[in-house]
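[agent] plan:
  1. take the single chain provided in the ticket
  2. run structure prediction with default settings
  3. attach structure tokens to the ticket
  4. add a short note for the reviewer (M.T.)
[agent] executing step 1
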Amino acid sequence: MLHAFNLYDLFIVCFVQLVLSTILILSPARSLGTRFRWTGSRVTEVLVAAVGVAAISALACFLTAELWNLPAFGLETAAYLLAIFSIVVIILRPDFTVVGQVFYASYAAAGLTFLAFAALVATAAASSIFEILTSSLLILLDLAAFLVWSSNVNYVSDVLCRTRHSRPTPVADPSYLPMVSLHIPAYNEPPELLIETIKAVERIDYPDFEIVVIDNNTSDRSVYGPVEDYCRDRERIRFVHVAPWPGYKAGACNLALRRYTDPRAEIIGLIDADDIVQAHYLRETVSYFSDPRLGFVQSFEGNRDFEGSAYYTACVDSYQSFYMAAMSSRNERDSVPFVGTMGLFRRSALENVGGWNEWCISEDTEASLRVLKAGWSGLYVPRCFGRGIVPPTYAGLNTQRHRWCFGAMQILRLHWKSLMPWDRSPDNHLSSSQRRDYLMACLSWFRDLLMAAFSLLLLVITGLLLSGSNFALMPLAGDKTLLPMSLIIIATICMMWALRHWKPISRRRALLALVISLSASWITARGCVEGMARREGVFLRTAKTGSATHRLRKALRVSRWESLLAIALAVSAILLSLKAHPPILLISIVSLQCAVFLCAPIASLWNLRAERVSRSELRRRFADQRAREARRARPRFTVVRVASTLFAAVLVGAAFAAVAAPDRLQPGTTFVRGKTPATTPVQSVRPPTHGQVGGGL
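[agent] step 2 finished; step 3 output follows
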């Protein structure tokens, strides 16, 4: 049987099984659990999951034979290997449902198989040193992209398919009421906005807390003066204005911590200048610090004043996907980050690690990493206690994303050694899960850089094809590029589905949120390059007010680089379609990348339109929207559940049919193995001259 095995067979079977498991995880069938209450045995869970794996692998083998007309013996061996790999993943991931385990295993197997197949074909087909170098570069890019997207798939699988918590539920002691010092850093903030925030903090229902408003480097007296006047002689409030002062936000927070915080305060909290805090915030969060091992608590940060605007609603949905997927998943492994607002630190933990890092512009996340490294624990409370303002301009949204990305690169430069599994220094108490999560959180920002690099490579491939060159940039063509592109598309779809799983939003809202997320691809890619090339960063404040002028030229200038890339990719697709033998698959990939970069000018123009709508008009639109939703409200019919049940029945039936009738898997009389591109000896593989495509990222 092993003699009949072909890597191409495994390549295609992995692709088919990945598609099948994706259909299952997007349906209610994903709730089929693996924990059986009557036994409590994980051995039983593994056995039942193995039956599910065998059924899906058999169906994938059957469909592959039917659709690709491949011989049975090689496919059976590939299915056995895939089932064994899936069972190993099931044993390593016992907290997922059967569908979640199969999906994660299928995704990992598909990515690894593609990399192995691409490396094998590239090694056999490359005829020059330059072709070997370019092929190796592309395979390395594919490997990096696979690692990044696998991390996102892990979060999604965790949200959709987790059956039990791996971390005990923390116990809060309501009688534990230490003094809290709440710090509100500000720089050039609109005075009326900041005063509104201070008033909300004053209304907090807690017996012992203080408020320190630290305004740094605001030179205009008319900006910070009204806030200073409001805070004067008010109970609990201390207003501090310093100019000049180094260290940006981190420097101001260190000043507040070391000089202006009450010595009795045991808990330090940060609140952004635009957050409206609920009165029960401290009573619902401080009590968790009764656990002496807890170093910090991070809650869900919400948004306000966006209702009635499709653009700002899409921005909010794109933000909240991080809390609903990444934060919820990382909390299970005690690796949640501190995000700079609506969170609390134990003062002794923060001071023991040296306070806030004034070199890093993501000082919040960097501080939480140092606290975890020192042996403390972190906790994510998935409840919203405060709501801030969405960046009113698209330029402000880009500034925010660039700052986060640049800060992640600084964290990677500073702590990469501590995140490596071989670091066993006595002061490093990070677990393997904490190292992996923080490392992948930094590396995940490279996703957009890889996407930009892939787009440039597509332009090079197009140029080679149009010029008639025989140079093979990547010796893979035809259906062999389906797998790498499917990894990206499936991961993106599942991320959208995870958002809809936690929020009752429509598919349209989820798609619009994806547009906002993709619109920051170029600015994030630039942040990665600048963060790795330049050590020092500049803290760019996110504007809390809209632009005074709403001009089309300005909106287009903000997204000019993305627009140029989109135009170049669109022209490439048009020129490729004019060839005598147009490479349909390559045209589709180029068009897909063009759509990604088109999201930036679309979002910029969309924001221009949203800024022109008054607040009163937004409130009216939101009221009308709620009224329409109320009129449309009907009891949900279980069509989806019935359809998914029928699909599961057909799935199992087809699997058993494939096993019971193996003759259908035998090659037909007209099948000639030697004429199939997949089984051509590797030594004879040469890149095609028409329809040449590059390895997908």
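[agent] step 4 note for reviewer: Confidence is low (pLDDT under 50) at residues 34-39, 652-697.
[agent] ticket updated
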